[in-house]
Amino acid sequence: MLPLAVGPRVAPRVPDGFDDRPYERFAVRPLTPTIGAVLDGVDLAAPIDPELHAEIHRALLEWKVVFFEDQDLTRDQHRAFAERWGDPERHPFYKYVQPGQDAADVVTLAKDAQTPGFENEWHTDLTWHTQPSFGAVLRAVEVPSVGGDTLWADAAAAHDLLPDEVKEEIEGLEALHDWRHTFGLGMPAEVVAQLDPHFPAPSHPVVRVHPETGRRTLFVNRIFTKAIVGMEEAESDALLTRLYAQYDRPEVHCRYRWRAGSVAFWDNRATLHYASSDYFPHRRVMDRISIAGDTPFGPHR
């Protein structure tokens, strides 16, 4: 007899009632059934009219992360595209843990033999902030000949594939999110002490409701989630370990092979991501602009 865990794991891509009209301004090449699609026929360096903006936004909500290939963008054009979806964020920590930053709103992730990649764990950006990022636009500047892929996980599919009893258990829970045990370890102690009062650890719902689609998403991650509020440490750790395991299932993943000029735009409210660190000591350079978000809320707001 096969173990009960073996068999189809199929989650819906979109909620009931989602606007599923065909796209008219680009062709869509899905990477998986639920998450990730390449949008062919869009030039991000050209002006984006309201109709095209609306279609890209709808595709983002449907596929959670969308990709544009063979883009020849300047940093200013990269910034202009990101700004169409909100205010660029100024990340307070990267200047300490990733030397050489020369712009307040563009994080250059330059990895080589002296600076190896360290983003290889599932995470959602800035969950230690009271208002985590809406999303991010990542542009490949220089990539290794092989390796250095990025993976995204569908946080709604991860939630939907939980057993019903676990969904009921976590429905109204909150979790603490903190930066001190991650970014803080790479910064001088005096800098951590200086930043500490400005970035207290917030609590967020374990089940977040997407503000546009209404989907329930699993909103915890191994890097920044510290504990379930109100639980003993052992109980909290056991539950979080079970929830994190949902992200390890390939059925909720897409994986993207970068080439220079590729651009990814992801919805941070609906996804986690993982940068595969398998290219050391070769060089990989990416420019990222994060877009400011809103306060997460749960099903019982």
Q: How many beta-strand runs?
A: 15
Fraction in beta strands: 15-25%
Low-confidence stretches: none
The helix-and-strand class reads alpha+beta
Named CATH architecture: 4-Layer Sandwich
CATH fold-level topology = Double-stranded beta-helix
The separation of the N and C termini measures 44 Å
The CATH superfamily is identified as Clavaminate synthase-like
What composes the largest sheet?
7 strands, mixed
Please tell me what the overall shape is. Answer: globular
Helix content: 10-25%
Whole-angstrom Rg: 19 Å
CATH class, anyone? Alpha Beta
What is the ordering of alpha helices and beta strands? Answer: EEHEHHEEEHHEHEEEEHEEEE
**Overall pLDDT metric:** 90
What is the total number of structural domains? 1
User: Which strand order do you get reading across the main beta sheet?
Assistant: 1-2-3-13-5-15-4
Detailed description of the structure:
By secondary structure, the protein is an alpha+beta fold. The chain is built from seven helices and 15 strands. The chain has helices spanning 50-63, 75-83, 94-97, 155-160, 164-170, 189-195, 233-244, and strands at 27-30, 37-40, 65-68, 107-111, 135-142, 150-154, 174-177, 203-205, 207-209, 216-218, 225-228, 253-256, 263-267, 271-275, 284-291. The strands form four sheets. It has a seven-stranded mixed sheet, with helices on one face. The termini are far apart. The model has no long low-confidence stretch (mean pLDDT 90).
Structure summary:
The protein is α+β, with helices and mostly antiparallel strands. It has helices spanning 50-63, 75-83, 94-97, 155-160, 164-170, 189-195, 233-244, and strands at 27-30, 37-40, 65-68, 107-111, 135-142, 150-154, 174-177, 203-205, 207-209, 216-218, 225-228, 253-256, 263-267, 271-275, 284-291.
